[in-house]
Design a protein that fits this description.
about 70 residues, alpha+beta, three-stranded antiparallel beta sheet, 3 helices, globular
Length: about 70
């Protein structure tokens, strides 16, 4: 995959198995990856998706108690 690839909202939603409206809600709330508006459509750069996903990683494995 090319880091400069532009991913439309529909593809982003399908990839993460969430509703398209969820992605629009994340975008409106400022919690989605950085977006680019081209005309009326919103796209995400693949590198921004990867960075966003890395930021969502948990620091400790699930189920471990400190």
């Amino acid at each position: 995959m090319d880091d400069d690839e532009l991913v439309p909202v529909e593809e982003f939603a399908a990839e993460f198995k969430v509703a398209t409206q969820t992605v629009y809600n994340w975008h409106a709330a400022g919690t989605a990856p950085r977006a680019h508006r081209i005309g009326r459509r919103i796209f995400f750069r693949r590198s921004d998706i990867n960075r966003w996903l890395d930021s969502k990683a948990e620091s400790e494995p699930a189920g471990s108690l400190a």
